[in-house]
Design a protein that fits this description.
By secondary structure, the chain is of the alpha/beta class. It has 2 domains: 242 residues, Alpha-Beta Barrel (TIM Barrel), CATH 3.20.20.10; 105 residues, D-serine dehydratase-like domain (Lyase, Ornithine Decarboxylase, Chain A, domain 1, Beta Barrel). It has 12 helices and 17 strands. Strands 1, 10, 11, 12, 13, 14, 15, 16 and 17 form a 9-stranded mixed beta sheet that branches. Strands 2-3-4-5-6-7-8-9 form an 8-stranded parallel barrel, surrounded by 5 helices. Helix 5 crosses helix 7 and helix 8 packs across helix 10. The longest helix has 30 residues. The radius of gyration is 22 Å and the shape is globular. The two termini are 40 Å apart. 47% of the residues are buried.
Length: 394
C-alpha cells in the first residue's frame, strides 16, 4: 500500500483541504534528533510545531527539555497551561501587556526567560513595569554570524553583541540593574542551522559546506570565550545554541549545555537539502481536484501557502503524493487554485486528493485549525493547532 493510499484511506471520511501529521514519522524524526544531539538535551522550538498536543508529545520523550518560544505572549500561555516550567523566549519583546502579565504571575516569572541584547531592552521592561518591578529572568544573545572580512556578514541579523568583551560588558550592565537576573546565553547559527549544504549545483554545495565548516570553527572558539567572559561575572543556568541543521557542530562545542531544534520534527521541504540528516515528511496537507482544464493538468482548490523568507521557488509548497506531480511555473501555488501537471495528473479525477508539503515546519499550522494525527491507515485523533485554540502570536 503506497503512502498516498494510506493517507487517503485514513482520511476517507474527511473533506479536504485538511492537514495530517504522521505520528510514526514525527516520532522517528524525534529519535533522530536525539541521536544527533549525542546526549545533550534538546530545547523544542515551538514556532516549528505550533500545536500544543505535539509539543507535549515530544516533551514527554527522553532527551527533550523545555520550550523555546517565539513570543512572550505564547510563552505565558504555555506557562499558565503547564505545558512546561522551562521556557526561553528566543526573540526580544516590545509587548508591554505581555510584560505586565509576566510580572504579575509568579508562576510565569519562574518559568520564563526573555531575550535581551542591549540596555534598551532593559529600559523597555522598566518602562512597561515601572521601577521596583519583580525580578525578570533574562538571556543574553550573542550574535553567531560569520564575519570573515570587514563588512562581510554571513548569517541572520540579530544581536549587536558579537565579541567576548561586548558580552562581558553587557553582562555587567545587567547585573547592575535591579529587577533582572541573567541566567543564560544564546547564540543561533542560522548560516549553519538553516542553510542546506546538499541542495542546488555541486559548486554551490561545496561553497556552503566550506563556509559552514569555517563558520562553526570560528563560532565555537568565540562562543567559548564569550561564555567564559560572562561566567567570570556571574553564574549561568544554560548556554543555548543550534537549530535542526547544526546539531552536530553545536553539540561539539563544550560550553553549549542545550541545543534548540524543532523543524526536524516536521521535515518540511527546506530541510531536504542537508548532507548530515534526512528527516521524514511528517506534516502534509491534502487539496481536492476541482478542475480538469486539459488532459495533462489537474487543478486543485486553494494551496497558496507560501512560506516566509526571501521570495522564491524554495518557499512554495510542493506536490508530494501521488508522485510525479509538479506545479506550473506560470501559476505556482495560488490563493484559490493550484494547477499541477505530470504523468500522475492524467489519472486524477474530480474529488481526488493531492498531498503537498509546506516549505517551513510550523507555518502550515497557521493555515489549519486542526491537525489529524495519523497512525498507519487511521486517524488516531484530531487536535487543534494554535489557530484552533484561538491563539495568534504574530
Amino acid at each position: 500500500m503506497t503512502s498516498a493510499t494510506v493517507y487517503d484511506l485514513a482520511t476517507k471520511d474527511l473533506d479536504p483541504p485538511l492537514a495530517v501529521v504522521d505520528l510514526a514519522a514525527f516520532d522517528a524524526n524525534a529519535d533522530d534528533l536525539r541521536r544527533r544531539a549525542a546526549g545533550k538535551p534538546i530545547r523544542v522550538v515551538s514556532k516549528s510545531v505550533r500545536c500544543r498536543t505535539l509539543l507535549e508529545r515530544v516533551l514527554a520523550m527522553p532527551g527533550f527539555e523545555g520550550l523555546m518560544c517565539y513570543s512572550l505572549a505564547e510563552a505565558i500561555w504555555h506557562a499558565e497551561l503547564g505545558t512546561t516550567d522551562d521556557i526561553v523566549v528566543a526573540y526580544p519583546t516590545a509587548d508591554h501587556e505581555a510584560l505586565r502579565r509576566l510580572a504579575a504571575s509568579e508562576k510565569a516569572r519562574a518559568a520564563i526567560t526573555i531575550m535581551v541584547d542591549s540596555p534598551a531592552h532593559l529600559d523597555l521592561v522598566d518602562a512597561a513595569l515601572g521601577h521596583g518591578h519583580p525580578e525578570i529572568r533574562v538571556c543574553l544573545e550573542l550574535d553567531a554570524s560569520w564575519r570573515p572580512l570587514p563588512g562581510v556578514h554571513v548569517g541572520t541579523r540579530r544581536s549587536p553583541i558579537f565579541t567576548p568583551k561586548q558580552a562581558s560588558t553587557f553582562a555587567q550592565h545587567v547585573l547592575a540593574r535591579p529587577g533582572f537576573r541573567l541566567v543564560g546565553v544564546m547564540a543561533y547559527e542560522g548560516q549553519i542551522a538553516g542553510l542546506g549544504d546538499a541542495a542546488g549545483a555541486r559548486l554551490n554545495q561545496l561553497v556552503i559546506g566550506w563556509m559552514q565548516r569555517r563558520s562553526a570553527a570560528e563560532l565555537n572558539s568565540r562562543r567559548g570565550e564569550a561564555v567564559r567572559a560572562v561566567q567570570a561575572v556571574t553564574s549561568l543556568e544554560f548556554v543555548n545554541g543550534g537549530g535542526t541543521g547544526s546539531i552536530e557542530s553545536t553539540g561539539a562545542d563544550a560550553v553549549v549545555t542545550e541545543i534548540a531544534a524543532g523543524s526536524g520534527l516536521i521535515g518540511p521541504t527546506l530541510f531536504d537539502g542537508y548532507s548530515r540528516f534526512t528527516p521524514r515528511p511528517a506534516a502534509l496537507f491534502a487539496l481536492p481536484v476541482v478542475r480538469r482544464p486539459t488532459r495533462k493538468i489537474a487543478t486543485l482548490f486553494s494551496g497558496g501557502y507560501i512560506a516566509s523568507g526571501p521570495a522564491g521557488a524554495s518557499r512554495v509548497p510542493q506536490p508530494y503524493l501521488p508522485t510525479g506531480l509538479k506545479l506550473l511555473g506560470f501559476e505556482g501555488a495560488g490563493e484559490v487554485q493550484t494547477p499541477v501537471t505530470g504523468r500522475a495528473a492524467r489519472t486524477l479525477k474530480l474529488g481526488d486528493r493531492v498531498w503537498l508539503r509546506h516549505a517551513k515546519a510550523g507555518e502550515l499550522a497557521e493555515r489549519f485549525t486542526h491537525y489529524h494525527l495519523v497512525m498507519g491507515d487511521r486517524v488516531e485523533r484530531m487536535v487543534p493547532t494554535y489557530r484552533g485554540e484561538h491563539q495568534n502570536f504574530g
